Amino acid sequence: MSKKLVIKVTAGADAPERCSQAFTVASVAVASGVPVSLWLTGESAWFALPGRAAGFELPHSAPLPELLAAVLAAGSVTLCTQCAARRDIAQADVIEGVRIAGAQVFLSEVMADDARALVY
Question: Nearest Cα to 83, choosing from 53, 45, 109, 37?
């Protein structure tokens, strides 16, 4: 079995290349059969809301809504609890399949023997 890849993306529209890299790596990993857990933190937290990914544009990159959909279909997407609270985002507000969880859950994922972590 493949090692689980835990990706924490802190960038959003404020750093589009970094943001796009995180989503691209996550979607390529799930397409390759690698278990993926994508964490939305900081400015990427907004992409947990319906329609927000559609407003993201970066020339020569795959559309963010498609990348996010791929990860949701075959991996997991988590919105940071504190990041959600700072933006007044509740579980009822997010895209179906996105969970809200905190540092304890993140730590348990990255510390697992079968996990590798990336931060963007």
Answer: 45
Is 71 strand, coil or helix? helix
Q: Residue 61 sits in a domain of what CATH number?
A: 3.40.1260.10
Q: Any residues with CB less than 8 A from the CB of 38 and at least 6 apart, and which?
A: 7, 9, 22, 23, 26, 71, 75, 76, 77, 78
Per-residue tens of pLDDT for the chain, all 120 residues: 579 999 999 999 999 999 999 999 999 999 999 999 999 999 999 999 999 999 999 999 999 999 999 999 999 999 999 999 999 999 999 999 999 999 999 999 999 999 999 999
Q: In degrees rounded to 5, what are phi and psi of residue 53?
A: -65, -30
Total domains in the chain come to 1
- What CA–CA distance (Å, rounded) separates 2 from 5? 9
Range of the domain at 79: 4-119
Strand partners, 98: 77
User: Is-above-0.90 flag for pTM?
Assistant: yes
CB 118 within 8 A of CB 87: no
